[in-house]
Amino acid sequence: MALTLRPLEWLIGDWEAEPDPSGATGGSTFALVAGDSAIVRTSWAEYPAGDRRAGRHDDVLLIFVERGDVAGLYADNEGHVIRYQVSVTDDRAVFVSAEGPGPRFRLTYERQGEREANVRFEIAPPGADFASYVGGRIRRSGPR
Predict the structure, then answer these.
(1) Which residues share a beta bridge with 32?
(2) For 36-90, what is each residue's pLDDT tens digit?
């Protein structure tokens, strides 16, 4: 594993999200790839019918080292592509998109012991602060 990816090692494995009040479910898998020089997160969420039509969200996030810094590239089944810069500590990873003509995005993972983490995804319209869009707790559902 690349030295600068080592603090993300705690994320490797399978995770399941706690269902939210609407009944939405989801999960993700973090896996080392490319000779342990990158991490791929695949993630999904299923939303029951309610205020909106039932649906499924799928995405992939490639985490890698670029010029000595941790970076990420995200794509999903809705056509979104986000390039992230990542700040990492032993218990936290914060993915922040670059300033641009549209909104900025921030994805945060905060470790809560060996088997749990809090996840928060925030959006900031141009000129505004980040506001929570979705978040919750995930639990390890498979081996590390």
Answers:
(1) 39
(2) 999 999 999 998 887 778 899 999 999 999 999 999 999 999 999 999 999 999 8
Buried b (16+ CB within 10 A) or exposed e, 74-95: beeeeeeebebebebeeeebbb
**Domain boundaries, position 42:** 3-140
Measured distance CA(111)–CA(1) in Å, rounded? 20
d(CA 67, CA 48): 42
Three-state secondary-structure class, residue 4:
helix
Flag whether pLDDT at 144 surpasses 70: no
CA nearest to 26, candidates 143, 139, 144: 139
Question: Residue 82's domain is classified under what CATH number?
Answer: 2.40.128.20
Q: What is the pLDDT of residue 143?
A: 66
